[in-house]
Amino acid sequence: MKETVNRRIKGEPLQYLLGEWEFYGYPFKVGKGVLIPRPETELLVDLVKEYCIRAKQEISPKDGLCSSEGATVLDLCAGTGCVGISLVKEIGCNVIAVEKYKEAAEYLKSNIKLNNVENNVTIIEDDVLSLKQLLFITEQLSIVVINPPYLSGCEMQSLQAEVRHEPQTALYGGNDGLDFYRAFFNVWGERLQKARLFACEVGDGQAGAVGQLMENVGLRVEKRKDFNGIERVLFSPGAL
Length: 240
Ligand code: GLN
Known about the structure:
This protein is of the alpha/beta class. It is 36% helix and 18% strand.
C-alpha cells in the first residue's frame, strides 16, 4: 500500500497502479510501456460500428461482402488493442493488430486473452511504416483504423505528470506532431484507397492538416468531433 501511494505521489497514473482500465465497457490491462486507452478514442469504435450497420442495411445480406462478421479490421499502432478488441466484441469482425513495441505487444496479448477473442485477433509485431512486412495483408484490406502518435514537441513539453509516465513512442509525432502521419500516408496512401473504410484519430487542431494529407493521396475526408467539440476522428468511407 505504501509503495502504491509513493508511486502515485511520483505521478504514476492511477490506471497503471490499478493495472486495468475500461474502454468501451471492456477491461484492458495497462501498465508501463503501453498507452492508456482514452475515452475520446471510443469515437473510432463508434464510427466503424456505424459504418458496418449502414453497410449491412444498404447491401443485401446475401451478398455477404459487407456483413461485419466477415470484415477484417486492420488495427494499426494497436497498443493495448482497445480499438480492435472492442470491435470484435461489438461487431464480431476479425482483427489484425499491428504493434511495433514489444512491451506494448505483451499487453495486447494479455488483453486478447482477457476478453476471450483469441479466435478473432491476429497480432503482427511489426512497424506500420515498413511496407515489406505488411505487403501480404493488402489483399485482406477492408477496414483500417489507426491511432498513431501525434503530439507536437510543444505539447510534449507541457504534458501532465501522469502522461510523462506513458511511452513517448505512443505520443510523440515529431516537432509539429505530423511526422508519423506524413510517413504513414506516403507508405499507405494508395492502398488506403482500396479500403472500405479508413479512420484515424488526430490531435487537437490537426484535422485540417491531416485531412490535407489524406486528400493528397486521393482519399475523401469526413470529420467527427469528440465530446469536447474537437475534430478528433477523420475518416474516408470507400464504396459500401
Ligand atoms: N490522445 C493522447 C493524449 O492526449 C495522445 C495519443 C496519441 O498520440 N495518439 O495524450
